[in-house]
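Recall the central idea of this unit: under ordinary conditions, the amino acid sequence of a chain determines the structure it adopts. In this exercise we apply that idea directly, starting from the sequence alone.
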Amino acid sequence: MGSAASVIQQGIEATKRQYIASKTLPKLLVVRTLQRIKSGTWKVEENEKVEEEQKDHIPSDETAEVHTNDGDDQCSDREIAITKEKCGQLALEAAGLIDRGGAARLEQARHLLQQVVEWREKLLGPLHANTLKSYAVLGFVLYKEMKLDAARCQYEKAVDGYEQVFGLANRDTLNCMNSLAEILTKLGMAREKEAADVYRKCLRGKEKLYGDHESTFNTANQLADLLKKLKQTEEARDVYSKALKGKQKVLGADHPSTINAIVKVALMCMQTGKIDEAISLYEDGLERQERIFGLNNENTLATAKCLCKLYNMLSVNRREDAIALTERIERCNGENRAGALHVSKHGGAKDGISNANTTKHIS
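Accordingly, the structure predicted from this sequence is:
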């Protein structure tokens, strides 16, 4: 056994190495260990237990930064409390500014959150839940300011951290991942394939965590829409089809979102050459749209025109169906034009009265 000074130095170096090896080790635990070393109540052999303490420790509050200046290896409870309180105050102030909106307030919120992120990274490390939340909120503000590349960086840190600490099937992980995919999509063609990969991973996580759920359907639609844009129509069709089955089960066949999914799958079937399947789906979608919304609805008419086009593609076999549907569309368009003319005539008089009254009050 070496001298007392040697044992203390060994303990300090071992604790430092342990902290460097794992960013998730709370710094307050390090401080307390160093205090035990100085008081002589810590042995070198106890270093083996530090890793287990780290795994079991789930931090709930902000903790203090480690100080190792000239052997004074401690941090006062007052410093911890003040820093914790200050971070909380800045985060709350930023949240209020975000809620109120406006470019100037968003800029103020961004500056506050950048300070919070800096302090929490130093005090807690980049994998603490509070630090990860700060990354996500700062990313949201940057997104609202249309600083997309900076927002991407913050969300990437949040996603990496959440997935490392909590896994893929976690609400915060998936929310940040979905936001990251949206930002990558908005960054343009250079990032769209990367966005599709993130959406795919996010969808797997949501299917595992939520199953057939609105959030899962939303991500599936976002992925399929992007795949359609990337001309990956077969995969887009499969993703739309899977979402359709879930919506039929959860929302019902006549729900507007389900009907919209029917039409999207029909379009993908048409683009991939599955004409008979596309016709069957378009007929189903048109029947539901016309029954619920009426034929003069914009979406209903769009579905009817697509179906008419498919009838014509089949030449003689559906020629009569195509003619009958075309006549119905034309009658509906004529009624819509007549209705628009009627509204224009009467609406013009009302607008004139309104303008006259306005002029009178102003003058």
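The chain has 15 helices and no strands.
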